[in-house]
Amino acid sequence: MMKKLNILRALSRPLLKVSLAIFLIFGGAKHFINPDFYTPFVPSFLPFTMAIVYISGLLEIILGLALLFKKQATIGAWGILILMLLFLPIHIWDVFSETPAVGSHKAALARLPIQFLLIFIAWKVKNNVSQHNLTNR
User: Fold this and answer.
1) Rounded CA gap, 57 and 51, in Å?
2) What does the DSSP 8-state code read for residue 3?
3) Torsion over CA of 28, 123, 84 and 89, rounded to 10 degrees?
4) Residue 100: enclosing H or E segment and its boundaries?
5) 53-78 burial, b for 16+ CB within 10 Å, e for fewer?
6) How large a percentage of the chain has pLDDT more than 70?
7) How many CA atoms lie within 13 A of 32 on its CB side?
8) What is the distance between the alpha carbons of residues 64 and 56, in angstroms, rounded to a whole number?
9) What is the helix, strand, coil percentage profile of the chain, to 5?
10) CA-CA to 92 of 20 to 30 Å: which in 7, 33, 41, 43?
11) pLDDT (tens digit, 9 = 90+) per residue, 88-102?
12) Smallest Cα–Cα separation from 36: which of 102, 114, 93?
């Protein structure tokens, strides 16, 4: 039984890492395909809204790609974790906003736990990648 559990853990680690990478690469690409979708998420007090949308999309693509390369995986995982933490206040603000960025208050409430889930996944991937790099030196 323990052997099966170890096999499942061993299989889930790369699957989680690749899934997160694909999610970020796809999400980053969407910043360029449909940037107007993301502009409501940029707080109104920040200048250069479109630049922020494009830069965050580029960061998502670069960090997602970094996860797929052994030598850059740790940097990618840390970057994704930091990026997800930076996005968290935006999602919290959206829940309490009179006019949520996209959709209704229910949609804003649904996005918040998803953001926490992404933070947790990024944390797990970071730990797995960091541990893997330490054991393979």
Assistant:
1) 10
2) H
3) 170
4) none
5) bbebbebbbbbbebbeeeebbbebbb
6) 87
7) 10
8) 12
9) 85, 0, 15
10) 33
11) 998 898 888 888 887
12) 102
Any residues with CB less than 8 A from the CB of 51 and at least 6 apart, and which?
Answer: none
Q: Are 31 and 60 in contact (CB under 8 A)?
A: yes
Identify whether the C-beta of residue 87 lies closer than 8 Å to the C-beta of residue 115: yes
Identity of the residue numbered 68? L
Q: What separation in angstroms does the CA of 80 have from each of 42, 70, 97, 99, 123?
A: 18, 15, 26, 28, 9
DSSP class per residue in 21-40: HHHHHHHHHHHHH-HHHHGG
Q: What does the buried/exposed string (b/e) look like for 4-38 if buried means 16 or more CB atoms within 10 Å of the residue's CB?
A: eeeeeeeeebeeebeebbeebbebbeebeeeeeeb
Residue entry with tokens 């309490």: 96
Within the chain, which residues score under 50 in pLDDT? none
